[in-house]
Structure formats: C-alpha cells, structure tokens
C-alpha cells in the first residue's frame, strides 16, 4: 500500500495529506536534498533587452539611462553579498523589480535565477548604497529651484510658498524592537511615519522616516531636521516673507502656515484662505500617491528591522525624484489619509499675525 501511495504522489495524483505522515516525512526529507528548484533562465540576458523603452520603465520604473547612471554611481562601492557572484546589473534590476512590485521574494528569485535570501540581502545593500551615494537627488529648494517652486504654488493660488509638508503611514509587519506596540497607529495596523516635504512639481525636498506609527504628525515633524532648523535657524531654510504649508496637524509658525481652525465662525476671507491653502497643499498628498503607485512594495513592507525599513523608504523617495527628472507622467493613487487633529497647538503670535496678513490678501 505504501509503495502505491508513493507512486501516486510522484505522479501528482494524490495530495501529501493522503500519504501516511511518517512515510511522507521520510520521503520529503530525502527528496528535498536532491531536488532542484526550477528558475527562469537568462531573463536579464535575453528577455530584458527585448523590452521597449516604455516597457522597461514600466517594469523597473527608471529608464535604461538612469539605471546605467545608478550602476555607475554605486558600482565602485558594490559589495557582492555572500560571494554569490551575482552581476551588478542583475542585482540592480532585481532590486528595482522588487521595489516596484508586490511580487513575493520567491517570485523575484525565480525570475532572476537567484535565491530568496540573495534577493533580501541585495535589496538591503542596494537601498543602503542609493541613500548614501544618490542622496543629492533630494535637496532643499534654493535659487532657481526655489523660484520655480514658488511660481508653481502661486499658480495654485497660494504665493510665497517654499514647499508643502505632510505625514504618510508606511504599513509594516510587527517590528523587532523594544516597544513594537508603539508602531500600531490609530487605524490599528503597524506602520512607520514618513514625513515628506515636496515642491510644486511633486519632487521631495526632504524626507524623514522611521518614527512609530502611533506618533502624531506634529511630533514627527518636530524631530525632523527641518523641524529642528525652523526652531534654531529658520532663515537658513525659509527666506523672509516665505513659508511652508501644511494641514491642521502642524503647528502655526511664522515659517509654517496651516488652515484656520473651523469653529463655525470663520469669516469669508478665512474660509477663502483655508480653501486656497488646501488646494495648494494637495500636491504633497499627490506626491505620496505617486510614490506608492510607482514603488508598490511600500504598500506593505515585510521587513522587521526599523533601520532597514527607513533606508528602503528613503531609497524609494530618491528613486521617485529620479523618475520625475525624466519628465514622466504617472497615474496618481488618490487614496490619501485624513489629517489627524488630535493635538491642539499653542498660539504663536508672530505666526498668527503673519497668517492674518496673508488672509487679508485674499
């Protein structure tokens, strides 16, 4: 009977549960040692070169030229993990594919003819190299870049604006850390906060990643490099008479404008001010939508190390800016999160005066 069951199993005619447990365990242990897992052969060498420019960008998000630039930049620092002898091009394309899709590590490994562990190790190495050697693609607007951003926000109805700020939750699995409960946000799933600043062209100017999902946006903002500089030396970031715009989750500062709190007694000008600010501020929500649409791995990161999570999200923001340099139109994911207004902020009288002066212009 055992021999018959085993014959049927090999012929795929019966499920493993139909074979006695002991017999299946002994056969499985022996079979696992000698079986070879089928992989896709020559995908990078034969299939990828046949992609049209648009198909290549659809799969890897960057153009061939930008991929070449990435390899040229990180190549001298590339560390071939585990001595796997994976060529740099294969590693970079596998990592871009992993970030751009929600395909399992097993699927990526089969496609690129490598192992799951190799995919994981090379992904962390790739993101680390991107954040280290390509970080110049995220920069605070100054000079002509500042002028162009201000013109864009002025066209949207809110003048003298440097950039917009908002917070975004990146879903993760339960992290390995001292207090994983802190990463459960108000919607009851694990996440880290991405605080992003963008110009009027949906380009990230600064990002801060890794704070627990339970944190209020204002707290994450305060501990970002921009938040600290606005407290210590605001003129180094925001020229006199200009400002950053954010939603009602952020504090009102002379250099940071937020809407009037709607208590049911707003004047017509105050309502007009709120409307114009919100129309101009929606650019940061669109930026997050673009980011998650293009790098779909961010819709849920199956990583447990907070440092790796932060590096991966930052790398995706850098690659997002590189995509925009190509002038590519991208479909926006319109799903955005509502502002969290749980914590009222103390009034800054200089900021109140500055906001009222702007309001009087509308």
TrEMBL record:
Entry keyword set: Hydrolase, Metal-binding, Nuclease, Nucleus
Localisation: Nucleus
Pfam families xref list: DDE_Tnp_4
Cofactor(s) recorded in Swiss-Prot or TrEMBL: a divalent metal cation
Every DDE Tnp4 domain range: 165-321
GO molecular function: hydrolase activity; metal ion binding; nuclease activity
GO cellular component, one term: nucleus
Family: Belongs to the HARBI1 family.
PANTHER family cross-referenced by the UniProt entry: PTHR22930, SI:CH73-257C13.2
Annotated protein name in UniProt: Nuclease HARBI1 isoform X1
Organism this protein belongs to: Gymnodraco acuticeps
Lineage: Eukaryota, Metazoa, Chordata, Craniata, Vertebrata
């Amino acid at each position: 009977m055992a021999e018959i069951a085993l014959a049927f199993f090999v012929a795929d005619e019966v499920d493993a549960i139909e074979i006695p447990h002991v017999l299946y365990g002994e056969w499985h242990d022996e079979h696992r040692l000698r079986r070879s897992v089928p992989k896709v052969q020559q995908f990078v060498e034969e299939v990828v070169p046949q992609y049209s420019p648009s198909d290549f960008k659809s799969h890897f998000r960057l153009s061939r030229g930008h991929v070449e630039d990435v390899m040229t930049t990180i190549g001298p620092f590339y560390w071939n993990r585990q001595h796997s002898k994976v060529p740099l091009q294969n590693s970079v394309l596998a990592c871009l594919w992993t970030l751009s899709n929600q395909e399992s590590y097993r699927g990526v490994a089969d496609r690129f003819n490598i192992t799951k562990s190799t995919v994981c190790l090379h992904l962390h190495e790739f993101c680390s190299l991107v954040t280290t050697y390509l970080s110049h693609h995220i920069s605070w607007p100054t000079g002509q870049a500042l002028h162009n951003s201000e013109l864009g926000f002025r066209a949207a109805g809110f003048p003298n604006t440097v950039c917009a700020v908002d917070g975004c939750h990146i879903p993760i699995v339960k992290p390995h850390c001292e207090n994983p409960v802190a990463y459960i946000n108000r919607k009851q799933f694990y996440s880290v906060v991405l605080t992003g600043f963008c110009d009027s062209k949906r380009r990230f100017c600064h990002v801060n990643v890794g704070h627990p999902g339970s944190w209020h946006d204002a707290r994450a903002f305060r501990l970002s490099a921009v938040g600290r500089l606005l407290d210590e030396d605001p003129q180094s970031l925001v020229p006199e008479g200009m400002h950053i715009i954010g939603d009602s989750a952020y504090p009102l500062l002379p250099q940071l404008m937020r809407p009037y709190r709607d208590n049911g007694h707003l004047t017509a000008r105050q309502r007009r001010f709120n409307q114009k600010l919100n129309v101009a501020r929606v650019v940061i929500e669109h930026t997050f939508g673009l980011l998650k649409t293009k790098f779909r791995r961010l819709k849920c990161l199956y990583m447990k190390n907070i440092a790796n999570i932060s590096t991966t999200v930052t790398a995706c923001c850098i690659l997002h800016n590189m995509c925009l340099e190509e002038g590519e139109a991208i479909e926006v994911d319109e799903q955005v999160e509502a502002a969290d207004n749980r914590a009222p902020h103390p009034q800054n009288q200089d900021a109140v005066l500055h906001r009222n002066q702007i309001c009087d212009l509308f």
